[in-house]
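Annotators were shown the component list below and the corresponding predicted structure, then asked to write short factual statements about the assembly.
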Amino acid sequence: MTHHKVIIIGTGPAGYTAALYASRANLAPVIFEGSQPGGQLTITTEVDNFPGFKNGILGPELMNEMREQVLRFGTTILTETIIKADLSSKPFALTSDKSTYTADAVVIATGASAKWLGIKKDEELSREGGGVSACATCDGFFFKNKEIAVVGGGDTALEEATYLTKFASKVYLIHRRDKLRASKAMQDRAFKNSKIQFVWNQEVISIDTQVHKTTQGMDVEKISGLQLKDTQTGRISSLLVEGLFVAIGHSPNTSLFKDALTLDESGYIRVTPGTTKTNIPGVFACGDVQDKVFRQAITAAGSGCMAAIETEHYLSSIGLVD
Ligand code: NDP
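Structure shown to annotators:
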């Protein structure tokens, strides 16, 4: 078992910023990359709202810069995923897919993941190249000149729909109500786009599929359409599409900590307001895993900084650093 003063879990903007400050404070942090190294920004294109990049920067490039920056100050990055966390006694014990580690302080920056509709096949088809996705930037290219649908009424749905019009011949925006949750600016942009057709008051109840042969002769099940239900009248209708993008929000990645830490009703880690302190002294949470309001790269980075400073104060208060 290897012991470290500080272990950080997750490598989005929150985790990397915590690592940056902790390494510059000589805490020799170890950061676990997890199953999505670089976090959600690695599946976006242009980031125009992170200060310091007047012409914008690509999401993966920004995350790579953050990675290089923490390496420069001596952070150890482990390409392992934590699968078990024992926070019941000190030092805390974290088990990865390779080994078990102990730590005096833990910073949780595990972020949030895209939600699925929960209907038969949506997540399976996304894993198996079946034409269902939660990331327009990653998969939009496969839908050149095709008719596709996006589900959701928030900023993500409208952003994805607008982006997808670069490839698709038509994008249906399916929303379960007749009012969007998205910001006015995003709505205006989407309403002006002649390739986007809004489908109001509809929920997707099932996905129709067809089996296609690949060039290697393998059978692949792909989406061929959707069954929709009118949320006002209950009427069922069909929509022919060759792709479906699910953009209905995110769930915090807190399953590892649900027995040890206090979570809110949506599963986000509760921190003492204005801090990154969880209900366990020495365990801190930053970024989207504790923030369902702002969820921005810059706010995540800010809370990562707070977590590192609070970690240093904590370690000092128990006599583990000067
Ligand atoms: P939101 O939670 O804001 O929106 C989710 C949307 O999906 C809602 O319209 C909701 O409907 C709908 N929805 C939820 N569950 C279902 C379901 N089971 N079936 C059908 N529809 C469903 O999530 P977003 O990911 O859009 O945004 C998250 C945060 O990130 C927001 O704060 C947003 O402003 C921000 N963001 C900012 C961007 C930017 O500024 N560039 C870009 C993207 C996101 P209903 O409205 O009926 O509840």
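Statements collected:
1. The chain has a mean pLDDT of 94.
2. The chain has two domains: 2-113+250-317, 116-246.
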